[in-house]
Specification:
single chain, alpha/beta, Rossmann fold, globular, hydrolase activity, acting on acid anhydrides, in phosphorus-containing anhydrides, DinG/Rad3-like, RAD3-like_helicase_DEAD, nucleotide-binding
């Protein structure tokens, strides 16, 4: 099996996407879903940010803003020598299958990912195509498009959405931040485009 295999398309018949206001609320929802699961089995997956689920110790110690960049660098198709040890599609599929059978909080996903030698972030992304119930932060709902016609999104604390949208559509940046951004772009270009 090829390590570079793409995730499978969404094949869950019906899905409920539960969008929480914060990552911290995700584990709380999982614990509540476990109570329901005892009465009726429900497959569940979590979509948290890479910074919440990344387990490669050499990268975790970096600043949160650099984890995405380091992950992309380690998994670059041309960078086979230094590829992340947890980015193995066979092991990721195995962890994905575990996720679809066992309801886990983020910490449990990370522990199980280390145990199986698979990235919980990518396994959760794949599992989300196969589960009845997806829990994620509202910030990440754009990662779900396009949704199937039988999908429903539930926004926890929906009364906060207008102010959240307003905050997303407005920003302020200082000259110092612009200069720092320009420097970061130059460094990234030199590092990733050769």
């Amino acid at each position: 099996m090829n390590n570079e295999e793409e995730p499978e398309p969404n094949d869950a018949e019906y899905q409920v996407i539960y969008a929480t206001r914060t990552h911290g609320q995700i584990d709380q929802v999982v614990r509540e879903m476990r109570k329901i699961h005892n009465a009726r089995p429900i497959s569940l997956s979590i979509l948290a940010s890479l910074s919440q689920m990344y387990i490669n110790e050499s990268v975790v110690n970096n600043r949160l803003s650099q984890i995405d960049e380091e992950c992309a660098y380690l998994n670059n198709r041309g960078n086979r020598k230094n590829k992340c040890q947890f980015y193995n599609m066979r092991k990721i599929k195995s962890l994905r299958n575990t996720i679809t059978r066992v309801q886990m909080i983020i910490e449990d996903l990370c522990i199980e990912g280390k145990r199986q030698g698979a990235c919980p972030y990518y396994a959760s992304m794949q599992a989300s195509a196969k589960t009845d119930f997806i829990i994620q932060s509202r910030k990440n709902t754009s990662s779900l498009w396009p949704l199937g016609s039988s999908s429903v999104i539930v926004f926890d604390e929906a009364h906060n959405i207008p102010s959240s949208v307003d905050q997303c559509n407005s920003s302020q940046i200082t000259l110092r931040e612009l200069i720092a951004s320009q420097v970061a772009l130059v460094i990234a270009r030199e590092r990733f485009i050769r």
